[in-house]
Every structure is written in C-alpha cells, then in structure tokens.
Specification:
Blueprint (H helix, E strand, L loop, with lengths): L1 H36 L4 H37 L2 H7 L4 H11 L1 H13 L2 H21 L6 E4 L2 E9 L2 E8 L3 E11 L2 E13 L2 E13 L4 H36 L3 H25 L4
Antiparallel strand pairs: 1-2, 2-3, 3-4, 4-5, 5-6
Helix pairs in contact: 1-2, 1-4, 2-6, 2-7, 2-8, 5-7, 6-7, 7-8
C-alpha cells in the first residue's frame, strides 16, 4: 500500500509537470505554428496539433518523472515518513526499487511512445500539410499577378490548366525564373530557366532544363532523422532513470528548505535538457 501511494504521487506529479512543460513550449512555439495551423482546414489542424502535443508530452515525461521524484522524496523527508521507514529497516534503495517497480507500466508506455513518436514525424506532417496548402494556393493564383504567401512570392505570366508559363518564384534564399512550370506530386517541376541561390553571403546562379523544387523533405533525410529521433528518445528515457539514484542523496543531504528544492529542481531541469540537446546535435548518420 505504501509503495502504491508513493508511485501514484510520483506519476500524478509527473503528468502535471509534463503538461506544464508542454504548454509552456507550445506558447513559445505558437509564433511559428500559427503560420501553418490557422491556414489549414479544421480537421488537418486538429490532427497536426494532436501529433505535436502527443510527441512533446511524451518527450517531457522522463524529465518530469525525475523532478517529481525529487519533490516527493523531499516531502517524505520533511514529513518524517522516510525516517519512519528507515527505523523499520527500509533503506532508500528499497524505496527506489519498489517505486520504480510500480512505475513499470508508465516506463513501458514511455518506451512505446519513444519508439512510435519522433520529432521528425512533426516535421514530416508539417511538410505534407504545407505542400497540400501551397498546392491548393498555387492552383488559385491568377495569371499576370504577383502573389505572396508567407515567405514565398509567386508570379505566373500565363496559365493553361495545370501548366504555368513565364514563372517567377522567390523564397528566403532561392529565386527561380522559368519558362514553364507544372505542379508535381513532390513539388513544382520547372522547365527551361535559371535558379539563384544564396548561401553564406554568396550567390550562385545556375541554368537548368528541368528543376524539381521540393515542397517537403526528401525521403532519405526523413529516414535518417527518424532513426536519430528514436535513439534520442530512448536516451531521454534511460537518462532520467539513471539520474534518480544520483540526485536522491543530494535531496536528502543538501536540501533544507523548499526554496533550495526549487533551485535544485530548476538546475536539474536545465542540465537535463541541455544534455539531451547536446546528445541530439552530436549524433550523425551517414
């Protein structure tokens, strides 16, 4: 009964912290997301937001589990419950073992989420929805007018069905002029023109007979990123479990007030997520 109570308090606080972190990150990302979700049909927007929330909620649970354990361990110490357990011969290792044992369903669910949900899934969904949005947008552009949507400026001289004549297209780092363009399943197929690209304050001009301007991410890139995301997700999961026995003596030996606990939890959170970001950036796949 005691172990179930400790495990329930840890799970409940973990879910609350993960919800708070996901909501906070959503507010930060809203400036970027609103360029997409408010321009989509309701069904597509809801589906995308469900995927976004599912990934980041699962992503933040491991660190939330670590933080909630620190909090509950401090509460057990302050309420003398930990001292009572120790007088009956129950060590901190026993408390940790029995708590993790009862957290195993949550840990299993986290492992399944780590395998199924990837940050690249959000990028893929975003690219698909952007491609769908721009395809519908481009089909409605009148001939002879400039049209700007987000970072893309488009001009069509003439239009014959799905084929455009005398096309001008400009993005943040790309300018294309072509005699003809056709909407392709993977993007825009441009014919007989030139492309001007900008990279590191340098400009490169090239002529082409056929040029496919992709509206999404190439499949190979998606596959490599998915593998990387899966590995990072499992590192995220096991890193939090490995840190629990490391931070427990700090909570019991150094923390005397709730203010000190707030500082410790904040430092652990910053250290934790910076470490995961460094691991993500250091992983490369050929």
């Amino acid at each position: 009964m005691l172990w179930n109570w400790i495990a329930w308090r840890t799970i409940r606080l973990s879910l609350l912290v993960s919800t708070f972190l996901t909501l906070s990150f959503f507010i930060v990302q809203l400036v970027k997301l609103d360029k997409l979700i408010f321009k989509l049909p309701v069904f597509d927007a809801v589906g995308f937001m469900f995927l976004w929330w599912s990934y980041f909620f699962v992503y933040f649970i491991p660190s939330s589990l670590l933080l909630s354990w620190c909090w509950n361990l401090y509460e057990l110490k302050e309420n003398k419950k930990l001292h009572v357990m120790q007088t009956f011969g129950i060590s901190l290792g026993n408390v940790l073992f029995h708590t993790l044992l009862r957290l195993s369903p949550l840990l299993l669910a986290m492992a399944v989420g780590a395998y199924l949900l990837h940050q690249s899934d959000i990028s893929t969904a975003r690219n698909i929805l952007l491609s769908k949005y721009y395809s519908k947008l481009l089909m409605g552009i009148p001939a002879g007018d400039f049209y700007t949507a987000g970072d893309v400026t488009f001009y069509v001289g003439e239009r014959e069905g799905n084929t455009w004549k005398n096309v001008f297209l400009k993005t943040q780092d790309l300018t294309v002029v072509a005699k003809e363009a056709v909407l392709h399943s993977d993007g825009i197929l441009l014919k007989h023109g030139s492309v001007l690209t900008e990279k590191e304050n340098k400009r490169f001009l090239a002529r082409f007979d056929v040029y496919l301007l992709r509206l999404g991410t190439p499949p190979g890139t998606i596959s490599q990123t998915t593998t990387k995301d899966t590995l990072v997700n499992f590192i995220n999961l096991f890193f939090s479990i490995a840190l629990i026995p490391v931070v427990s003596p700090l909570v019991l030996g150094l923390i005397r007030t709730h203010t000190q606990l707030y500082y410790l939890v904040g430092l652990i959170s910053i250290f934790y997520h910076l470490t995961i970001l460094l691991i993500r950036s250091s992983l490369t796949f050929s």
